[in-house]
Design goal:
five-stranded antiparallel β-sheet; 3 helices; 32% strand; globular
């Protein structure tokens, strides 16, 4: 895993306020089978919210099904769900796992998730 930049929640929030969709997002880690990022968005009432998202690709770069990879994906999604992440299917090709956290917890949650991916996907 490569070193990522520190998370600046206030810069994310400023970018969300200035964006058309009132959301800003930064990819923190990427592999062939998942992507992890942090973001900020404004609710319809204008309240800020910060989140972490993990996208799990179901069939990355291959027309064949890799059952070993799918088992690892399932372990990862179970870990995330136990941590309170919501899971939803997106476009039939990936699963989005997201949790809302206070801005001061973004870095800690990110490091926990990166540690989990290191443990589960260590051979990839």
């Amino acid at each position: 895993m490569k070193e990522t930049e520190p998370i600046d929640a206030y810069t994310l929030l400023a970018e969300a306020k200035n964006s058309e969709h009132k959301e800003a997002y930064r990819v923190q880690e990427r592999s062939r089978n998942y992507r992890i990022g942090v973001g900020a968005r404004l609710t319809s009432s204008g309240e800020p919210s910060f989140f972490l998202e993990a996208l799990i690709y179901l069939c990355p770069n291959s027309p064949t099904v890799d059952l070993t990879l799918l088992e690892k994906d399932l372990m990862f999604m179970r870990d995330l769900q136990e941590r309170g992440y919501s899971l939803s299917c997106q476009d039939g090709s990936y699963i989005s796992c997201e949790i809302t956290v206070p801005p001061q917890n973004l870095a800690t949650e990110l490091e926990t998730i990166k540690s989990t991916t290191g443990r589960i996907f260590q051979e990839d």
